[in-house]
Design brief:
Elements: E1 9-14, E2 26-31, E3 37-42, H1 50-59, E4 66-71, H2 79-97, E5 104-109, H3 118-130, H4 137-143, E6 152-157, E7 164-170, E8 183-188, H5 194-207, E9 223-228, H6 238-258, E10 266-274, H7 277-288, H8 291-298, H9 304-311, E11 324-327, E12 330-334, E13 337-338, E14 351-357, E15 363-370, H10 374-381
Parallel strand pairs: 4-5, 8-9, 10-14
Antiparallel strand pairs: 1-2, 2-4, 3-9, 6-7, 7-8, 10-15, 11-12, 11-14, 12-13
Helix pairs in contact: 1-2, 2-3, 5-6, 7-9
């Protein structure tokens, strides 16, 4: 599993001293080639962290030889000095690996507004480089956790196992992305050039990471990278490769929602009968961000009226008296009014399924969300301490 499942990659995760609690906080992923192709998507938040600004420039070259990821500090809203810190991290990585700094991507996660402790970080890079291993993917995934309760990895293989796509993800809060969510590194040993990687990644993120919405909050640091080593020597069919990338992204996205801060319910929101896919996504996201509904789900109350209220705030095409809503397959709302007995809805289990039928077309979309709990409020009120 993880980023070293594909041939041609090594990784490590170490405790560099960035976190005061001494937990692992620095990960290094290295592409040993022969190909160094890469693609990336980043947060669409207009307030971007220094590592995002740096990595966006790196990805314009279409090559990444190494990725440095740290937890324990976002290096966001840190001004010119924060960008210098990112540059220094890339330079140090290049020095210890013998690579070019212009091919080193950087990703950070943690509290916004504080500069990283550079002395332990730079020293930690030497430790991380010495610990690189083709079995180091799990340690790398552990090192990028913040409020995550578990580390997240996934893998998929091409036909006959001729090539592999692996990945790791970090994220438990601020999961309401544009193109990406939190920190994710995907790797493949397929022999694929950068433009094809970019096409596959953007197509995958559009229907996976861009369709999870835990809390309506978009991070300043969201980064998803896809690196190709070409070590398998196989160039797959475009459709096969795109499907493998999508499979890994979907797996990781589901794990992110499953580990969302304080959540006790995972909510699958499927919008059907939409006039356009954009309408379906807009409606799904509106339902996902309705705090009254999220509280009702936490209380195991099938309050379909809150679903209709959320739909009504959108610009989607629909007629109010034609809307239908099912909760866990019970159609509690039919034609904009009372449907089946809401007492039939069994909400005891972790997953809750909401289906909203707009009766306006044939398009659909799925958004994943979670409930709103007292634990979520507690965790985020105490986060900076």
């Amino acid at each position: 599993m993880s980023v070293t499942a594909a041939k041609g990659f090594t990784a490590s995760g170490v405790a560099a001293g960035i976190k005061e609690n001494g937990n692992p906080d620095l990960a290094l992923v290295v592409n040993n080639g022969p190909r160094l192709a890469a693609a990336g998507v980043f947060t669409s938040n207009r307030v971007k962290a220094a590592p995002v600004l740096w990595s966006e420039q790196v990805l314009k070259g279409g090559q990444v030889s190494a990725v440095v990821l740290n937890s324990g500090g976002a290096n966001a809203c840190t001004g010119p000095l924060g960008f210098q810190d990112t540059h220094a991290t890339a330079e140090k990585t290049a020095e210890v690996l013998g690579h070019s700094a212009g091919e080193v991507a950087i990703a950070s996660t943690g509290l916004i507004g504080l500069r990283l402790p550079m002395a332990p970080l730079l020293s930690g890079l030497e430790t991380a480089a010495a610990a690189l291993s083709e079995h180091g993917g799990e340690k790398a995934a552990i090192a990028i956790k913040t409020t995550d309760t578990v580390h997240k990895t996934a893998v998929a293989q091409g036909p006959d196992g001729a090539w592999t796509v692996g990945g790791m993800a970090k994220g438990a809060g601020m999961l309401a992305p544009g193109l990406a969510t939190m920190l994710i590194v995907l790797t493949t040993d397929a022999d694929v050039e950068a433009p094809a990687l970019d096409a596959a990644l953007r197509d995958a993120t559009r229907t996976t990471f861009d369709r999870i919405d835990s809390d309506g909050c978009m991070s300043t640091n969201d980064t998803v990278l896809l690196l190709a080593s070409g070590a398998s020597g196989v160039t797959p069919a475009a459709d096969d490769f795109a499907e493998a990338v999508r499979t890994v992204c979907a797996d990781l996205a589901r794990q992110l929602i499953g580990d969302a801060e304080g959540a006790s319910k995972d909510i699958r929101i499927e919008v059907v009968g939409a006039a356009t896919e954009d309408d379906a996504v807009e409606v799904g996201r509106s339902i996902a961000r309705n705090n009254l509904l999220k509280c009702a789900i936490h209380g195991e109350d099938p309050n379909w009226g809150r679903v209709l209220s959320a739909i009504g705030t959108t610009s989607a095409v629909f007629e109010p008296d034609q809307l239908n809503v099912a909760i866990n397959d019970v159609w509690v709302c039919k034609n904009g009014s009372v449907g089946e007995d809401r007492a039939l809805v069994d909400m005891r289990y972790r997953e809750v399924r909401i289906t909203a039928d707009l009766a306006a077309g044939s398009e659909s979309a799925v958004i994943w969300a979670n409930d709103l709990t007292a634990d979520y409020v507690h965790e985020n009120s105490a986060y900076s301490s």
